[in-house]
Amino acid sequence: MKTTYSDEQYELAYPPGIEHHWWSAARNELIAKLLREKCADCNFLEVGCGKGVAVLGLRKEGRNVRGVELANVQPLSGVEQWVDSGVDACDLALETRLTYEGLLLLDVIEHLPDPEAFLNSLLKSFPNVSFVFVTVPAGQELWSNYDQFAGHHRRYSLDMLESLGATLGWTLDRAEYFFRLSYFPMRLMTMLGINRQLKMVAPGTALRPLHRLVCAISRLEQTLLPRYVRGSSAYALYKVRAEVET
Q1: C-alpha to C-alpha distance for 58 and 87, rounded to whole angstroms
Q2: Which of 136, 159, 160 has its CA nearest to residue 147?
């Protein structure tokens, strides 16, 4: 079953400059903060990294992250040396797989019909991994034409993320919604039957300060609002081996 993006999907989702979009920047900041708190010096591999938007952002934040992408796509400029494109993560050399202590699956598992089987198989290929961090689109009530176009199977709740970990025998260290500001307009659109725009628009130079402002607001809401307040995305950090200490 095909789980990688088509050329059209990549073109729409990753226009040049998309790393400056508030959504990408805010997600990277959130992930970098959590990784710094839980395992500052760990080596992380992002599985299903696309063109390397998160790899680029997280490395700029000082995190030790590389990426691997099953589709044969050209990584973003400046991140080519940190991304293995056209490669299955489980086919990386064993000596390479042994160097990783954490895995990142950032907006990946919603594309899989059986994420439990995939994650269980993936972990077997990375015997030194102690942490798995996932982000997902949240709120089935936000389901739209974009989810269909992107090949999503579901949108998640915190309960679903907890159940996923329990099925795999993993310990849920932390889970939380994020992007609360976008939840309400997206909910209104679904209630009114308004389709979402499929093409991501990267901000030009003039609009980048505005996107940085929205990114700062997203960072503030993450600090001030309780974890269970609905957002359009969610994350979960799992401890996947009992001997892990935090």
Answers
A1: 21
A2: 136
Contacts for 96 with CB less than 8 Å, ≥ 6 apart: none
Residue 113 neighbours by CB under 8 Å, 6+ apart: 1, 153
pTM over 0.90: yes
Closest of 130, 160, 138, 162 to residue 35, by C-alpha: 130
**What CA–CA distance (Å, rounded) separates 135 from 31?**
9
Cα–Cα distance measured from residue 106 to residue 122, given in angstroms and rounded to the nearest whole number: 15
Number of Cα atoms under 13 Å in the Cβ half of residue 10? 18
Element (H, E) at 118: helix 115-124
Residues 56 and 75: beta-carbon distance below 8 Å: no
159-213, pLDDT tens digit by residue?
A: 999 999 999 999 999 999 999 989 999 999 999 999 999 888 899 999 999 999 9
The candidate with the shortest Cα–Cα distance to 29, out of 245, 243, 235, is 235
Nearest to 135 by CA among 18, 237, 228, 230: 237
Alpha helices, DSSP H only, in 135-207? 145-150, 158-168, 180-192
Question: What span, in angstroms and rounded, lies between the C-alpha atoms of 110 and 108?
Answer: 6
Total H helices, total E strands in the chain = 9, 7
Contact between residue 132 and residue 123 where contact means Cβ atoms under 8 Å apart: yes
